[in-house]
Amino acid sequence: MPKIPLVYKDADILVLDDNPINVELLVQQLEDYGYRGVRGETDPRRLEALLEAGMPDLLLLDIHMPHINGYQVLERLKTHWKNQAPPVIVLSAQTDPDTRLQALNLGARDFLPKPFDRFEVLQRIHNTLELHFLLRERSSRAELLEELVKQRTADLHRLSLTDPQTELPNRRGLLEWLQQGREAVVYFIVLEGMDDIARVHGYGIAEALSRAVGERLQRLPGSLRRQLGVWGGNEWLLLEFDGIGEQDIARRANELVAVVSLAFEVEHLLLYLKVRIGVSHSGFAHRSPEHLVRLASMALPTEHNCWQCYQPVLEQDLLAINRRRQALHAAIDNQELFLVYQPKVNLHSGRVTGAEALLRWVHPELGFISPVDFIPIAEASGDILRLGDWVIDTAIRQLECWLEQESVAADFKVAVNVAALQLMQPGFADQLITRLQQSRLPRGALEVEVTESGLMQNMELALSQLQQLAEQGISIAIDDFGTGYSSLAYLKLMPVSVLKIDRAFIDEMDTDCQDRRLVETVINMARNLGCVTVAEGVERVEHIDLLRGMGCTLVQGYWYSPPLKPAAFIAYTQQHNAMR
User: Fold this and answer.
1) pLDDT reading at 482 higher than 80
2) What is the pLDDT of residue 487?
3) How far apart are the C-alpha atoms of 292 and 294, rounded to whole Å?
């Protein structure tokens, strides 16, 4: 007879039979064969306590017992212990089909008839234990896999809420914090200068700087209930859940500005950032946590190292700006734009010898929109390129018409403003020269006005473009001189022929000694550089007398005339010059 393997000798086997002799016999046989964890019980009422103390790996169960029979035990195991119940081999002298079938229906794994055949008992026990441990191993593996899946899912969820560079909450993580429903103050922090640092020093330095920013902001004193995180790119959020009083908000916002403005030491480099902060809090009407953050972003000031709290008027202004942006995109096609011309008067001859072309916009629903409002929108959206082309083309056609009709003198000049974005287009100078060559204008009839700040965006490119224009006889004027970077060192390098003195210096020069000295200094400097000077914003006769005495070349302003439409401009010019 083949030997039955003893693989599970340490299995916990419980024999339950009301006949002590049967229990002792079976326990003895199993122990003799090598099983070391066999125990017996004759009272089925004690089974519950035995199972509570420790679940066996196998239960050998008699059917006919007093107090609680084997069928009742099987039912109890099935209903109370369910999947935790041990496998059961039924022991019974009754071998009729009904008895066997009822036991199997109640969950018994096998059936052993009495009296026992030793080898059959050992084989059936081995088979049942083998299946039991196989199932238990698979169950353990499934539980382990389930636990691993849960852990991995938790890790992925945590990673989805975390910024990889700083290990702080990202946008999703911050929104989860805000969704907790507590009162909160949102500080929307924009770091300025991070991109330049990355380009100059490398992205590794920029990442280290981001971590340094996070560490510094987390060390801020005060509220323990707060959360710092990265909203995206160079935009951060600080959420505070204690107190939304105006004084608390102002104190915290000023602290944020102060700590970010201080130098950061990163890998032996001293790096500086500028910051803008918009603030909102849950006291404002909002539809969702994301909307509350958007309110804070609306409050971002335009100036660096400043903060501003949201007010409903800001949203109204933003909606108005957005509506203007959309309307401006179609303004040219809808013929809503036009040029007006402000006369430039020569102080020596008293005659109108030129004009500045100025863009105006009247929308059919929004009405007149000031250039102060729509030019920044056009510059931010890039529409200034198309507007600038339209202005140049329109000014060229208008001057061609005036010259052909002899409405102005042959040496009459019209100046057009060129935005920084236009000047930074590599082909701008070539395109303008081509337009002028294709026009009927005499050489030098068009003048280009640029600002100091526009020149400083890319000095090398600006210098190259302006030199090309100057070589074709196009006058170059520096507009609003003295209000930008005052890059005097570059003036001798640039082919500048006109300096325009900003109205900010002209307005009170007759009453303010400092303004008067500044204006006189600019005029003398322009004379030494061989440049013409144009004073803007001339509104009083005192301005005329002072500027004439200082040797200023040209003036424009409301003392003579506001900007005029073409027909009115020609009428004014002819009348004014006739009187001279």
Assistant:
1) no
2) 52
3) 5
